[in-house]
Structures are given as structure tokens and as C-alpha cells.
Specification:
Order of helices and strands: HHHEEEEHHHHHHHEEEEHHHHH
Strand content: 5-15%
Distance between the termini: 19 Å
Mean pLDDT: 87
Number of strands: 8
Structural class: alpha+beta
Strand order of the largest sheet: 4-3-2-1-5-6-7-8
């Protein structure tokens, strides 16, 4: 598929080099698209839903807002104690400050790495709802989007699909780029009356032109969440001294659960002491007027201080304050502007990825990009089925002599270095093609592979 592992070419004419590059990138584009189609559709649908997380969760929580209240709210410590009674042996993990005096308190408790949200009436202390955090609708959508409900294995598949999608977009731009001036038809808008094949080709190419930048942005800003790329990114930051003390994103849900187990597995005996202080911390957090939603986290094995954190969607508005576990005094405050420039860039990218950077317009751009990606996937499938000969895959033919030039070799190396999961996949595919698939007549004919040289 990739025409790798061959000696570098000697002298070639310019047109010949361009023709070889075009053919190889066309082949890359075909296989990348074929692999990515189902994942693009799934990730586009789940991603579009997640863009509206604030509105969806607000709608789901509407029965627990604007409650009938009588008198002042009960102390936060009592609300937390009531929540802990709902899960035997659980530890207090966080308290979300209600947005208004008639909203239910949301207390997060944890046991064995499983988090549960308990909704408590602010005055009567009645428990209104108990739900595991991972069972909430948007948590399920996020897990599908990031892990395909398969844990770390699913996360690896998503990362591979995202890597190939980057290849698909970049190679698609090269293949589409106009090389002759024939007007704007087929470039900026499709030709609707030129036959079925031209129609689908133009739908694919024109849609790709309009959404490619936004698609690349979504793909690249999603990389910090992935297991391999994200952990490699963290490693580079550790080596260069640019890593933050803490970051507000994780590589996987598994990493979140492991952190929870490490932080809260040894807190059972001291929970009452910390809960008794949550009233003062909640009062201080309210006085700080942090951008909502705001959560309060008790001291734990990994962090000896109380933390009040703004979880504002745009992230630029976020502030976190550390309070002493002994007297409740403020010991540290960090705003977005205090973070390292790399954390700021990643934070802005993540906020835009989630549709929360600049309000409804951000959400609209995200939905349009997702719809464009679905259109690309569907039109690619239709073109493939229309053009594929009977009984074969219909892949573009490989370079005849299987040789690549220096420029192509550097291009492959750059992609493999930046996207290590893709690099490993390319090596595996090259080995399979060279030593197995190309030596079996049926698979060689079906895949359109060249006859291999004798071993």
C-alpha cells in the first residue's frame, strides 16, 4: 500500500517525480479513507452531540433546579454526609457549588474507582437522584467518542483512525489542488449536471476543500487526549521542563480511574475531619466568584490541600484556588494566564474542539465540520463502489518499480515521527504486503499489489 522500504531513486524528470508522488498519495488517500469511513461517521455523530454538553446536561438536570425551598440552605457538610450514606464505604470526592439557591447540590462520592453523583435538596437534605457518573448520557457519549466503549484498546483504535484521517485530509488536499485554471466549478462548488460520477467526485472534493482546515484542527486538538501521542507529548514536556504541575486534560478514562484510586483509596478514616471543613471552603469559593461550574475537592493522597476549581467551558475563564487543609486560608491561586504557554495553547484548542471557546458559533462550526466529514465519508464510499471493478478492491495501482524518491521518503518519515501509531501501522502494512499478501495470488489480485521480487 505504502510503497516503502525501497532504494532511493536516482535522476528523474520533474513530471515523472510528480506523477509518482501523485500515484503514491492517491493510494495512501484511498486506503486511509477506506479504513476511516466507519470511524469518521461514528466520531462525527458523537462529537456533534458532545458539542452541546452544557445544554444537554442542563436539560437533563432541569428537574433538580428551581426547587421549592423553605429557609436557608443546610450546611454543605450535612449535604455531603447525606450523599455519603447513599454509597456504603464511599469517600467524598467533590462538591459542585449550586448555580442558584434553589438548585440541588451535586455531591460526587467514590468507591473502588467508581464515581457516583448524588443530588441533594439544599434545605430538606432529601436525596433526589443517585447516578453513577459514567452512566450519565454525556459521559457515555464521551466514552464512545474517545474509547468506543473498549477502554484503552478502543482509545488506541481511535488514535489510529485519527492518524489515518490526518493523512486522508492532507493527501486529499494535494490530490484536489487545482493544477490548471478551469474555473471554479469542481473547485469551490460542485457540477450538478455533469453525470453521476462527476457529481459524486465534486461533492467529495468540494466538501473536502471547505472543511479540511477545520477537520485538521479537530484532529490535531484531539491528539493530547490520546494514549500514545498524549503520553509522548507529556514525556517531551517533562524532558524539556515545560510540563505543568497539573493539567486539565487526561489521556484516557482508565487514567482518570487510576488517579482516583491512588488519591482516595487511603482516606476512609480521615473523611469526617475534611468534611467538617467543607463549609468554610465552600464559603471562600463562593466569595471568590469563580466562573461556574465550580467544584470543591477535599485533600487526598495526591494533593494535601482543598481545591476550588472553575470548570468553565471556554477554559480561558478558569481559575483554581488551593486552600490550606488546616485553617482554610488561601495558599495558591492559578488563572489561565499563569499557565505555561503550551498549556494555554492546548487549553484553547481543547475548548474549541469541545465547542466552548466562543459560544454558539463555535458549536455551529463544529457541527458543520462534522457534517462535512460525514459527507466526505459517504461520497467516498459511493465513488468507490461505482468505480471498483468486479471482484477486486479497486485500489489505485502502486508505483510499478516500488521505488521512492528522497522527498517521498522524508514525507513518510515525518508522518511516522509525528504520529507514532501511524508509523507502527505503516511498518506492519509494509511487512504484510512484502512478505505475505503480495505472495498469495488471490490477495495480490484483490488488493492490486505488484509481484514481489524473489527473496
Amino acid at each position: 500500500m505504502t510503497d516503502i522500504a525501497s532504494p532511493l531513486q536516482s535522476a528523474q524528470s520533474g513530471p515523472e517525480k510528480r506523477a509518482r508522488l501523485y500515484r503514491m498519495l492517491w493510494r495512501w488517500h484511498f486506503y486511509a479513507g477506506l479504513f476511516c469511513i466507519p470511524f469518521i461517521i461514528l466520531l462525527s455523530i458523537t462529537g456533534s452531540l458532545y458539542l452541546f454538553k452544557p445544554q444537554i446536561e442542563a436539560a437533563l438536570d432541569r428537574p433538580y433546579t428551581h426547587l421549592t425551598v423553605t429557609g436557608p440552605s443546610a450546611p454543605v457538610s450535612q449535604q455531603v454526609q447525606m450523599a455519603l450514606k447513599q454509597v456504603d464505604g464511599a469517600s467524598f470526592k467533590s462538591y459542585r457549588l449550586p448555580d442558584g439557591p434553589t438548585d440541588a447540590a451535586q455531591v460526587l462520592v467514590t468507591k473502588g474507582g467508581r464515581d457516583t453523583i448524588v443530588y441533594v435538596h439544599p434545605t430538606s437534605l432529601e436525596v433526589l437522584k443517585v447516578i453513577p457518573r459514567e452512566d450519565r448520557l454525556m459521559a457515555v457519549v464521551r466514552t464512545i467518542h474517545g474509547e468506543l466503549l473498549m477502554g484503552d484498546n478502543g482509545s488506541l483504535i481511535v488514535e489510529l483512525a485519527a492518524s489515518w484521517a490526518i493523512v486522508m485530509v492532507v493527501t486529499g488536499l494535494y490530490l484536489w489542488w487545482p493544477r490548471t485554471s478551469q474555473g471554479l466549478q469542481g473547485v469551490l462548488f460542485p457540477r450538478l449536471n455533469a453525470g453521476s460520477k462527476v457529481f459524486w467526485r465534486d461533492i467529495h472534493a468540494v466538501t473536502g476543500m471547505w472543511v479540511s482546515f477545520f477537520a485538521l484542527f479537530l484532529l490535531l486538538t484531539g491528539l493530547p487526549w490520546t494514549n500514545v501521542w498524549g503520553k509522548g507529548f507529556d514525556m517531551v514536556r517533562d524532558l524539556t521542563g515545560t510540563a505543568a504541575v497539573s493539567k486539565d486534560w487526561t489521556q484516557s478514562r482508565t487514567a482518570e480511574r487510576e488517579a482516583t484510586n491512588q488519591a482516595f483509596s487511603h482516606r476512609g478514616h480521615d473523611a469526617p475531619y475534611y468534611i467538617a471543613n467543607v463549609d468554610d471552603i465552600a464559603a471562600s469559593a463562593r466569595a471568590a466568584r469563580l466562573a461556574p461550574p465550580v467544584t470543591i475537592t477535599p485533600p487526598n493522597a495526591k494533593n494535601p490541600t482543598w481545591m476550588a476549581r472553575s470548570l468553565a467551558g471556554d477554559r480561558i475563564s478558569r481559575v483554581e484556588i488551593a486552600y490550606s487543609a488546616h485553617d482554610g486560608s488561601e495558599v495558591r491561586r492559578e488563572a489561565f494566564g499563569d499557565k505555561h504557554v503550551i498549556d494555554q495553547a492546548v487549553g484553547i484548542g481543547i475548548a474549541a474542539h469541545e465547542g466552548q471557546l466562543f459560544g454558539p458559533l463555535n458549536q455551529a462550526l463544529g457541527v458543520l465540520t462534522a457534517m462535512g466529514l460525514v459527507t466526505l465519508a459517504v461520497s467516498a464510499f459511493v465513488m468507490w463502489r461505482k468505480r471498483a471493478p468486479e471482484g477486486v478492491l479497486g485500489a489505485p495501482p502502486p508505483i510499478p518499480d516500488q521505488r521512492i524518491g528522497t522527498g517521498i521518503g522524508l514525507l513518510i518519515f515525518a508522518f511516522a515521527l509525528f504520529l507514532p501509531v501511524l508509523g507502527a501501522c505503516l511498518i506492519l502494512i509494509a511487512l504484510l504486503e512484502r512478505f505475505i499478501l503480495s505472495r498469495i495470488p488471490i490477495t495480490r489480485r484483490f488488493l492490486g499489489l505488484a509481484q514481489p521480487a524473489p527473496l
